[in-house]
Specification:
The structure holds two protein chains of two kinds. Chain A has five helices and two strands. Chain A is mostly helical. Chain A has a single domain, classed as Cytochrome Bc1 Complex, Chain D, domain 2. In chain A, a hairpin with a 3-residue loop joins strand 1 and strand 2. In chain A, helix 3 packs across helix 4 and helix 4 crosses helix 5. Chain B is an alpha+beta fold. Chain B has four domains: 35 residues, no CATH class; 164 residues, FAD/NAD(P)-binding domain, CATH 3.50.50.60; 168 residues, Polyamine Oxidase, Chain A, domain 2, CATH 3.90.660.10; 92 residues, de novo design (two linked rop proteins). In chain B, the strands form eight sheets. Chain B has a five-stranded parallel beta sheet, with helices on one face. In chain B, strands 10-9-20-21 form a four-stranded mixed beta sheet. A three-stranded antiparallel beta sheet of chain B has the order 7-13-8. The chains are: A mainly alpha, B alpha+beta. Chains A and B meet through helix 1, helix 2, strand 1 and strand 2 of A and helix 10, helix 13 and helix 14 of B.
């Protein structure tokens, strides 16, 4: 509890010290954003784009829109926790709850999946053991 | 070094030493890789006639161009397919007039003044990266020192000293001085009696006193001795009132809890030790120089779409980006120097183990931002000539140009270099203009002059770079153990090269050494066929 209180104070201190425009940026190695929408906008959208339509260059970031795989909770959870090909395992920089939130957000927005949500406990169970 | 298979390397060295004297021996030791521990053995020799064999090389970065240059010299027919309309790949400088469109569609037109640039990718060369240094010498790329450690640059944390930046010189001197004092006192008290002999303890104490700037009582405090390291509250002058005034060290508790000591490793690690170099005029000068060795060899604007092979040769399908037309090229062999972030998406006919290896390497998220200022305030106001300031802010560091010192006029700072972690993704998800704004907001906490003197910027987020979709391969130990050798094997008629196929990832030296190793093995295979 004491450690948690300290962490919260440190976080507030960071946001205040970093100035208005920086307030939304994380400190340390865990994303500070909360909720699926914010996590998508500040993490996933970097590559898959804000509209989820992906991007094409010498290679491509797959569009999430209309991607049948996105309907599968297991598929999306595996991507976040283990990465795939060049995609880093961004779920390693999120808590179980954050990971569940962004999985549910992506599935609801792009996979048109209602109900059947992933929980933090599901993520915890699927998370690979630390090396 | 197969020319003397019957001689051990050490035996060879002793012969050289006996015949030519010590300096020749040292030179030979260096080029043979004993004194300096590099695996680069000097210009590659591919003896034997390849009898007109052809090689298609994919990617005109330093790995692909190294392979093309050396195979061409050995008698192979070579051609390169390159996605971009310029050579170099990640060896790249953005200058005034350059236009960059990133994935997502944002386009930046760089309006830096003449001679100013940002190196979005590699930007410094360690003295022990012998291969790239040798190629720079052979191809006439002028180098100048890159300043990694500037004692007068800043260490900054929003959690330390009320956010007030501290001079590297002071943190470094105070940390080393405080440690020296503790160790000297512990030695005096007999705490090291079991580990160090009495005679050696006296030497140790003398060394700590000298190295740490301790006074006659083995204390690190405000004194003539400590000021020689940490500097002065008032520097020495001339004439009247010229006597220097010593400065007060930071207390041990404040020093430790500031965590600023964590940045000191950036000046001690092997990769960052002085002397480091940069090409005069930007890192991109190296890629340009390599390309001059390859007239007519590089086909630009070619997007590779498939690679397959049979017992007789390799076929590469590509799209001519300008016309959209599909094309094919055939060759006897293929050196594929595409980043794995790209290659893992291309239909490729190789063995399952190599394919697994190609799919096993995530790519780093990295963001760099260049900021042009109308005056070199870091030099004029703060006496910072080159070097790097480190901070816990999302920009992580500010690097001052290692060129054009004390010349007045404008300059471009590296206003942010963020490698992995949440901030790299958050920055990548922003527009270039937003990234530049973050760099300004962060930098202004260290240099208030940012607000008045900023002119223009350019920002590169490597996950949005169309030709790589990421910065560099990040091998985990487990992935290396399971996949690295499979990645580097010659698979039928295809061999891979690039920084990802090296133990020096994300460095140009790794790309070149990987290419030299790949073509050495390929050449042996060709001669054996």
């Amino acid at each position: 509890m004491r450690a948690l209180a300290f962490a919260v104070i440190a976080l507030m201190h960071a946001s205040a010290a970093w100035g208005q425009g920086l307030a939304s940026m994380s400190e340390g190695w865990v994303f500070q954003e909360q909720g699926g929408e914010a996590l998508y906008a500040h993490v996933c959208a970097a590559c898959h784009q804000p509209d989820g339509r992906g991007a094409v260059g010498a290679g491509a970031y797959p569009a999430l829109v209309d991607d049948k795989n996105v309907a599968s909770a297991t598929y999306v959870m595996n991507l976040l926790l283990n990465g795939q090909r060049a995609m880093p395992a961004v779920g390693q920089m999120m808590s179980d709850a954050q990971t569940a939130d962004v999985i549910n957000y992506v599935r609801a927005r792009f996979g048109d999946v209602s109900g059947d949500e992933v929980s933090a406990a599901d993520v915890k169970a699927a998370r690979p053991a630390a090396p | 070094m197969n020319e003397h298979p019957s001689l051990s390397r050490r035996h060879l060295l002793s012969l050289i030493g006996a015949a030519a004297g010590g300096s020749a021996m040292y030179q030979a030791m260096t080029s043979l890789g004993l004194a300096a521990e590099s695996t680069y053995m000097g210009p590659i020799r591919l003896d034997g006639d390849p009898r007109g064999a052809s090689v298609v090389i994919l990617g005109a970065g330093l790995a692909g161009m190294t392979a093309a240059i050396e195979l061409g010299r050995a008698g192979y027919k070579v051609q390169i397919l390159e996605y971009n309309t310029r050579p170099g790949g990640r060896n790249w400088s953005i200058r005034g007039g350059d236009v960059c469109t990133e994935l997502g569609g944002a386009t930046q037109t760089c309006v830096f003044d003449e001679g100013l640039y940002l190196n979005p990718g590699p930007w410094r060369i360690p003295y022990h990266h012998h291969a790239i240094l040798d190629y720079c010498r052979r191809f006439g790329v002028a180098l100048e020192p890159f300043i990694q450690l500037n004692h007068n640059a800043w260490l900054h944390s929003t959690h330390a000293f009320d956010g007030k930046p501290q001079r590297i010189r002071e943190i470094k001197a105070d940390f080393e001085g405080a440690v020296a004092e503790l160790l000297a006192k512990a030695t005096r008290k007999g705490a090291l009696d079991e580990a160090v002999s009495k005679e050696d303890q006296e030497i140790l104490i003398a060394a700590l006193r000298e190295h740490g700037g301790l006074d006659g009582d083995l204390r690190y405090r405000m004194s003539d001795e400590s000021a020689e390291y940490r500097g002065y509250a008032k520097d020495a002058g001339g004439g009247l009132n010229a006597k220097p005034v010593n400065s007060e060290p930071i207390g041990l508790h404040d020093l430790l809890t500031s965590r600023l000591w964590r940045s000191l490793a950036n000046f001690s690690l092997y990769d960052f030790q002085t002397t480091m170099f940069q090409p005069v005029g930007g890192m991109g000068r190296i890629g340009e120089a390599f390309a001059r060795q390859l007239p007519g060899v590089i086909r630009y604007g070619a997007k590779v779409t498939a690679i397959w092979q049979d017992g007789r040769g390799v076929t590469v399908a590509y799209q001519d980006i300008a016309s959209g037309a599909p094309r094919e090229v055939q060759a006897d062999w293929c050196v594929c120097a595409l980043p794995l972030s790209i290659l893992s998406q291309i239909p490729l006919q190789v063995s399952a183990p190599m394919k697994s290896a190609i799919d096993a390497v995530p790519y780093a998220s990295v963001v760099k931002t260049g900021l042009q200022f109308k005056r070199r305030f870091w030099e004029e106001d703060e006496h910072i000539f080159g070097g790097i300031s480190y901070t816990n802010l999302p920009i992580r560091q500010i690097s001052y140009p290692s060129t054009g010192y004390n010349s007045g006029g404008k300059g471009v700072l590296l206003g942010g270099y963020t490698w992995d972690g949440p901030n790299a993704y958050e920055l990548t998800a922003m527009s270039p203009a937003e990234r530049i704004q973050v760099s300004l907001d962060c930098g202004a906490q260290i240099h208030p002059q940012y607000k008045a003197d900023f002119e223009t910027g350019v920002s590169v987020a490597w996950h949005r770079v169309p030709f790589t979709l990421g910065c560099a391969g990040e091998w985990s130990d487990a992935a290396r153990r399971d996949h690295y050798d499979n990645l580097c094997q010659i698979d039928g008629r295809i061999v891979l090269a690039g920084e990802h196929a090296s133990y020096i990832p994300a460095w140009q030296e790794g790309a070149i050494l990987s290419a030299l190793d790949a073509i050495t093995r390929l050449h042996a295979r060709v001669l054996a066929n």
